[in-house]
Amino acid sequence: MKIVITGAADGLGRELARKLSDNKLVLIDYAEDKLKEVAKEYNCEYYVCDLSSSEQVEKTCNEILKSNEDLDILINCAGAWVNERAELNLSKLRNMILVNVFGTIGMTSCLLPKFKEQKRGLIININSQAGVEREEGFPVYGATKHAMAAFRKNVKRNFGNSNIKITDIHPGMIQTKLFEKDGVNYPDEAFKAYSLSKETVADAVLFVINQPEEVVIPALEIKNVHENL
After folding, report:
1. Angle 81-84-85 (CA atoms, 0-180°, nearest 5)?
2. DSSP letter string over 135-187?
3. What is the domain partition of the chain in residue ranges?
4. Separation of first and last alpha carbons in the chain
5. What are phi and psi of 46, to 5 degrees?
6. For a Cys staple, 13 with which of 40, 77, 141, 196, CB 3.0–4.6 Å?
7. 5-52: per-residue pLDDT in tens?
């Protein structure tokens, strides 16, 4: 299969590249050095792209379509998080909205015509529990994830009859450096006690991919049994 993965340089995206490395991968991220490292490790095509930029998203998707006759799966894994409890930073909030919402919408919108032409395709969005539940203290992050869920529902309504499948995966907290990037560090043992490993979430993605052709999973929620107890 030919699989496009955004946010592939680190965290869950990198784990997905590892788990899916038997396929032909197209990896996307803004972190060029790390992305090159992953692409070299798994011998795959890659594109450096800032998903907050409409020009870069469009250019990257056009290049992908030119160099690939067929596409099977798009995994929108790239995501951003801001510590909204800290001092207000509108620039960071804007970037988070663009990466989480526009990044997903942009990649999906640019590649959907190809899936429609093929009359097949699978889109998997790595959403969040914040996209189905109320998350105390992080209203903007929650809004981005609810927006992703609304987008998925409308894409399904518009393109479901084209044999295009789309799924939102809503994990709870994942053991990645997402929070560290904005200066929040959780104690290791406590964090691991109520969060999911990257491997577990990647296995959920594989579960969706491996469903029979006639089966679609609209949304899949997964979380550590101890989270929010």
Report:
1. 135
2. -TT-HHHHHHHHHHHHHHHHHHHHHGGGTEEEEEEEE--BSSSTTGGGT----
3. 2-222
4. 40
5. -145, 155
6. 77
7. 999 999 999 999 999 999 999 999 999 999 999 999 999 999 999 999
The architecture in CATH of the region 2-222 reads 3-Layer(aba) Sandwich (3.40)
The DSSP code sequence of 74-139 is: EEE-------TTSS--HHHHHHHHIIIIIHHHHHHHHHHHHHHHHT-EEEEEE--GGGTS--TT-H
> Rounded to whole angstroms, how far apart are CA atoms 47 and 70?
17
In whole angstroms, give the CA distance from residue 48 to residue 72. Answer: 21
As a whole number of angstroms, the distance between CA 168 and CA 139 comes to 20
| 75 touches 127 (CB < 8 A) | no
User: Angle 198-209/11-19 helices, nearest 10 degrees?
Assistant: 50
pTM over 0.90: yes
Q: What is the mean pLDDT of the chain?
A: 91
Dihedral Cα 69, 78, 154, 219, nearest 10 deg: 100
Confidence (pLDDT) at 138 = 86
- In terms of phi and psi (left: phi > 0; alpha: psi -120 to 50; beta: otherwise), the region of 84 is alpha
How far is Cα 5 from Cα 19, in angstroms, rounded to an integer? Answer: 12
What are the angstrom distances between the C-alpha of 210 and each of 15, 138, 191, 213, 217? 17, 34, 30, 9, 11
Confidence of residue 165 (pLDDT cuts 50, 70, 90): very high
